[in-house]
Amino acid sequence: MELAGLDRARYFLPTAICVYLAGLCLVLMITSAFLVSLQNAVAVTAAGLFGLVLTGGLGYSFWRAQRQDLRYTRVQTQSDAPENFAAVRSAAVLAGWRIASEEPASRLVAQTTVTLLDVGERVAVRFRGSDVLVASICDPSVGFSLVGRRHCEEHRELVRQAVLAPRPRPDAASPRPDAAPASAPGSAS
Hints:
Elements: H1 5-11, H2 13-31, H3 38-70, E1 73-76, H4 81-95, E2 98-103, E3 107-111, E4 121-128, E5 131-138, H5 146-164
Antiparallel strand pairs: 1-5, 2-3, 3-4, 4-5
């Protein structure tokens, strides 16, 4: 999924804050070299190192999780792009999602419903032949949310179920109203 400009900056803000804090810890470690007391210098360096490792690790974890969420998950189907698009659009409408943009048989971007305690998530779906690519992220204004990530997984699963669910084929042979019922083999007429 592509994020541009302000959305991208807001989405990665938690990671940027961790990088900023790690930088402050590094500066703290450097300034500890200028302390007169060796005991104070060691304590400040240890605190700075602890903060650097903690915020650096947390920032890296945020960054990896956010990058993973931006990647599309591929779902292989037996249907073509227009059928998959119709199934996903129908499922999105039934789920109460707001369709932000759509290009029939090509892509669909939706925003999930907003509640009092949840700002919603963004779901992007692309259709390529019989493949469906789906990505879902927390709203970029939130950045990173464990609850939102769980919801995103549920949204990806909803799309997956929608395109893999059996659908009646319009070209399937349906009995004509004027056709006589066929008799079973071996039955007497």
